[in-house]
Amino acid sequence: MESAKIIKKSSGGRHRVFTNEQRKVRNRQAQAAFRHRRNEHKKTLESTIQDLKQQQAVLEQTALEAIRRAEHSEKRCMALQAAYLSASRALQYLLPDMSGSLATSSASPDSCLSSSPSIEMLSSPEPQEFLPSIDEAWTDVLGEWKLHKIRK
Questions:
Q1: How many domains does the chain have?
Q2: Where along the chain is composition biased (Low complexity) (predicted)?
Q3: Domain residues for 115?
């Protein structure tokens, strides 16, 4: 008797009743739409991966070039500094009357390493034609010394 007292309650809304065939068609359409969205998303991700790989290759090449140029500049700075110190010592020895002014302007051996190169320096072409070689710098110093001796 108690089973007869259970009454089905309605949920208050109207429910559509679909046939099995309609439900199967809708499920197939939903699955096809999902597969299409998934494939489109996959293609988008693969395209993004390819773009990022290309960007990474370009950035790695740019970084390697910047490192190479910075190392070249550091070596060049050290060579010029050595030439300068050698020339200033030669001038101090050869021209004792000017030794006070040269001693105050001598550079420290670590001045090339004290600051990192700026982005402008790294992105500009190497100005090799503007910088004299060590031999040219030494020749200029000796030439100045000879002119100074001739003038006296």
A1: 1
A2: 105-126
A3: 20-151
Taking residues 56-81, report their average pLDDT: 96
pLDDT score for 46: 98
Q: What does pTM read for this prediction?
A: 0.44
108 vs 49: CA distance, rounded Å: 49
Place of tokens 């982005």: 119
Between these two residues, 26 and 18, which has the higher pLDDT value?
26
Q: Is residue 10 part of a domain?
A: no
Residues in the chain: 152
| Residue 95: partners with Cβ closer than 8 Å, 6 or more residues away | 145, 148
What does the alpha-carbon distance between residue 129 and residue 92 come to, in Å, rounded to a whole number?
A: 29
